[in-house]
Amino acid sequence: MRQTIRNASCATLLATLTAALAAAVSLAPSAADATEGGVNVLILKEHGVGSAASAQQYVDNLIAHVARQNKWPSAAGQYLTSRATANQWIGANNPHYGILSLAAFLDLRGKHKLEVIGSAEVSGGGGRQYFVVSASETSLAGCKGKTLGTDHGDDTKFIDKVVGRSDFSLSDFTVEDTRRPMKTVNAVARGEVACALIDDAQLASLPKADGGAAVKTVWSSRQLPEMAVVAFPSAPASEKASFKKTLAAVCSGDGAAACKEVGLRSLEAASESAYADVITDYQ
Predict the structure, then answer these.
(1) The domain defined by 130-220 carries CATH number 3.40.190.10
(2) Which of 23, 94, 145, 259 has its CA 20 to 30 A from that of 59?
(3) Which residues fall within 8 angstroms of residue 119, CB to CB, at 6 or more apart?
């Protein structure tokens, strides 16, 4: 599910972050190179935007920093934006770890027996909270039965069970797939759709849209957990424990400047209890 929208600078920061996270645990050019004694890591940020080309100088700093911390003999990271592609990559590369968007984590958790070991906080990253907004309607009830523009409708289960919960499901509306984050914002601001389902980053961009000042929030979700840092069953127990201990240190000391440049606020150790509520809802 797409969970990001950005003005140009924020889009670049988020894309830079995801590339840096992938490269930060990548000491070899491909996952195959890390098979013998190495560590493969999947970064799955669905519908990521922007170019990662400008990230390289900061990625290089993070590579050395994380490598020293974990003493991995070799490693490879893969950044993907498609859940289907990620499933194929997991089967072919037997990863030890992943950093996953919330919806992807919930979907892949059971199939791949994922264990939460941490969380990743990004600067200005969308997907922590969702909103139904409108320029013409004044309540969620007023939006039901009318057009709902959204670029988040590609994961009905996540929206219905985790976002809308008992308040709404996508079937309550005539859903219009706006495909791109900014298109959603513009569509509701211009009155092309009666209402829109957007995330927190899209909400922040509303004032910049033509007509955005007239758009009001008619419903808000609870705040959701951050991206999940997970271990796959292939991760040895001792390696996993060591990696979990070093997560909070990635953005301190030598890594502080690089984290700031790529838009990463922090990595920190966490357990499944931090995601217990959304796991229960999703199931």
Answers:
(1) yes
(2) 94
(3) 225, 226, 227, 228, 229, 267, 268, 270, 274
